[in-house]
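Bumping with the actual sequence this time:
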Amino acid sequence: MKLFFDVLYKIAALIIRAVCLVNGGLEVKGRENIPAEGGVIIAANHISYLDPPVIGAVLPRRGTFMARKGLFEIPVLGRIIRPASFPVDRDRPRPSMIKEAVGRLKKGELIVMFPEGRRSETGELLEAKRGIGVIAGLSRAPIVPTLISGSDRALPVGARWLRRAKITVVFGKPMYYTSTTGREGYGEHLQHKEIGAVIMEAIGKLKQEYADNRCG
């Protein structure tokens, strides 16, 4: 069964890449920054419903996604995404979800997360939810900050059909969790919040570098 889903994943990735290339282009930078083995967190900004399939299609390894719980209740879609994802209740995050993510990372899986927790309708980066900090802190897995650009033009908020636009995915250098334990009065909640802030700052730097390179 695993072999079947691996083949299905590769076929889906090939189709998604082909559609993106025909629809305006697909550029991927920094793929070599993703560790070849072991647990890894891909932490990306979120600007379109296209983001998960596009990132999944350009990863050098099979990715596992933390997907919104409601998606699994959609008859056809739920069946399609289940082999490559597990459900998350964004409104009421449960310890079991954190445990699931940490367990998968410690087993060597690559997990794709969107720290903001929802799409940014303006394209601007939002504050990270606490979950990414908790998972990163408990798993100690390397975090690859990731920028996706152009997907909001290809499929804007409210759009039903694809629009012609080039999509770019930039993978930054992996970040390794450094514990902030030991600071007086610095509890776990603040540690996790700081981890999320550092991740969003890294994505912000990728965004600025990408903008500078386009202008240069």
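The tokens above came from a reply further down the thread. The chain has one domain: 2-215.
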